[in-house]
Amino acid sequence: MPLRIPAARSAAMTAVAFALSCAPATAAAAPPPDTLEARLLACTGCHGDQGRATADGYYPRIAGKPAGYLANQLLNFRDGRRSVPSMTWVVGHLSDDYLREIAAHFSERHPPYPAPPPPAVAPEVLERGRRLVLEGDPSRDLPACTACHGDALLGAQPALPGLLGLPRDYLNAQFGAWLNGTRRAMAPDCMATIARRLPPNDIAAVTAWLAAQPVAPGARPAARAPATLPLDCGGLGR
């Protein structure tokens, strides 16, 4: 037996259906704001909130590093002197001025550093690393890391990076990249020269000691680089 709907109810249902068909479509979600912070979410997806590095630490901290250093690295990724496909994809078509704007943004961020993990090497290895970092080895023409990167090892304005607050795996990977040529700087490439003078056991000692050092709250890169550097570094000219 066919269902009978009262005429009044049928008319009401028809009116509702007509009203719904004429109602405007639900408004689309508002686009994100066109701000530098919104655009740089592409960076913090890997490098962590404000560039503080992710929990696993392999993607390095970029927050608080000197703007000149960050700009140089972005240019190196774009121009093929460093080989990390994801970075090349992100910056490959960006202008010099825009890369410097990005660098300045992250250089002004200073979230606190996490406590370093306990070292996983023997005390004598740490001591070997400490001596190389703080004293170098004149017999092999190896300057101390502090001779360029500052007594506090937090780098110096405008373009010398800090070495603390980075995980050991990342530091080891960078030495490997200098040795195999996948990381390069403008000639003369001083870090490639240093890497070639260090045997693997010395690299392991240096990175173990650096990765075990805490960073004091409020620490910043030095205001200026040392007056005289032990090696010529072409990248500093940019």
Structural features, described:
- The chain is mainly alpha-helical and 238 residues long.
- Helix content is 46%, strand content 0%.
- The longest helix has 16 residues, at 7-22.
- It folds into two domains: 34-111, Cytochrome Bc1 Complex, Chain D, domain 2 (Orthogonal Bundle), CATH 1.10.760; 116-233, Cytochrome Bc1 Complex, Chain D, domain 2, CATH 1.10.760.
How would you summarize what this structure contains?
Helix content is 46%, strand content 0%. The protein is mostly helical.
| Range of helix content | 40-55%
Q: Write the element-wise H/E pattern from the N-terminal end onward.
A: HHHHHHHHHHH
Q: What profile does the largest beta sheet have?
A: none
Radius of gyration: 27 Å
Number of helices: 11
* Second CATH tier, the architecture of the largest domain: Orthogonal Bundle
For the terminal residues, how far apart are their CA atoms? 88 Å
The best one-word shape is globular
Strand content: under 5%
Number of strands: 0
Q: Identify low-pLDDT runs.
A: 1-23
Let me know the CATH homologous superfamily of the largest domain: Cytochrome c-like domain
